[in-house]
Amino acid sequence: MKRCIILIVYYLLxxxxxLCLAQEEHKGISLSGSIQSDMLLPQDDKDIGAFKDxxxxxxxxxxxxxxxxxxxxxxxxxxxxxPLPGFExxxxxxxxxxxxxxxxxxxxxxxxxxxxxxxxxGFVLRTYEERSLGIDNSLLGGRLVVKPMKGMTLxxxxxxxxxxxxxxxxxxxGADAEVSIDEWLSxxxxxxxxxxxxxxxxxxxEEKEDIYVIGDPTHYYNVPRFVNAWDVRANLNKGPxxxxxxxxxxxxxxxxxxxxxxxxxxxxxxxxxxxxxGLSILLQAKRSENMSFRSQRKMMGTSAFINxxxxxxxxxxYALAALYPYATQLATGEWAYQAExxxxxxxxxxxxxxxxxxxxxxxxxxxxxxxxxxxxGPDTYYQDLDIQLSRKLTKDFKLTLMYMNQRYNKTVIxxxxxxxxxxxxxxxxxxxxxxxxxxxxxLQYLQTKQDQGDWAYGLLELSLAPHWMFTVSDMWNCGDxxxxxxxxxxxxxxxQGLVTYNIKSHRIxxxxxxxxxxxxxxxxxxxxxxxxxxxxxxxxYNF
Length: 543
Prior knowledge:
Layout: H1 2-26, E1 30-42, E2 57-67, E3 71-80, E4 93-105, E5 108-115, E6 129-130, E7 135-136, E8 139-146, E9 152-163, E10 166-180, H2 186-190, E11 193-205, E12 212-213, E13 216-220, E14 226-238, E15 241-250, E16 265-276, E17 279-289, E18 334-345, E19 357-369, E20 376-392, E21 397-409, H3 410-414, E22 419-434, E23 437-447, E24 455-464, E25 468-476, E26 493-503, E27 506-515, E28 518-522, E29 525-529, E30 532-542
């Protein structure tokens, strides 16, 4: 951490001096930043399995950025000396892990320090931050971006990947080229046609190490020092129609994820969409096999990933619809499909009524693969069929109804638990009491005979714009399970009360209650969060 701080001072102090001198000439300097602090005063609750680790927990982040005509710079301070539950062990600590300087001159951009980037859909490279999942896989090194001509972007980068409080493991290097063909052909522009093609290459270098063969401690795996991955893609847009095709492949990469298999990895995706005049359609399919790509071959969990494969499933916002979220099976591979239809029925029609109505239908299906490329494997990993209706019944009242049928293979996704079949019902009503006063009510029910049985959820939220919001909710494990383990470990209430205050760029939220143990997911990446109980305080500020 001391070395990080020295580097910050080394880079930012000269830069600050430069910006101050340049301000008089260009008058284009801006300063921005943010502070986020989530705090917990934990309490023990043996009924739900919540046990406190200390008397105070917090995850606190402070970002600052300077921008000017020719140079940008930034840094982030993180304080997790007493981290929130689920962030223990390697997350513990504090320091300045992110710092960068970017020079811009004409068609050239050079970044030194830590940075994030993504090639295509992220099949071979995606570095990003997702604080709720504890993910920050930024690269520490350099990146050069050049736009040599109209419609063309070239990137070259190299660096060490962040893992918690260190940059260790292999060196990640790569190059990406993307060309917008329509920028060169006026005939395509005249016909509202846009075509972008791209290609990427990523190399991981990792020092050789002694790893015992599973079941035979007298022999070692011969692991490659270099692993290469490449990606090609094309994106065509014509009017309301869009088509994206992408393929990526990875050389031999034996790792903990794939039980040190020497098979190559690959992923192919085809995605089409249509959107016009109140109608939207999305159809997409993806097949992936052995595409876990980490900068450290012995890692597990959510750390040290170089790439990202999105899950073709909805990230649900309703509590019970999100109770069993899907995690992309990178190592074993999967066939994944998604179809989504949205339609707005016009006002003053038989189905639209006086104010109109919106209908959304989504179907997601994920299945195991076989060696034969086009064949399915024997197991279903996940299935989700849901329909949502939103309609304004009166001038002041809007109602949203949702039904969801779900199949969740807990054995595949979490390690044990079998197939869970569930039916989920949601009613969400919004009542406008006054010009700045709204009352929202959610009623949800999840029905299943597997796992922990049925769940019920209720929420009331009173909004007094622009400053106040009051929320109370309860999630109750109300049903019986066919599983013997849960027969005497259910029927708990997970209640919460929250008060939120907003003023200008400040947001403060104070709460108290219980949180159920489970998985927090985003985009197919999941992190286990233990049960908690206590007082919560959250503060956010942007400037």
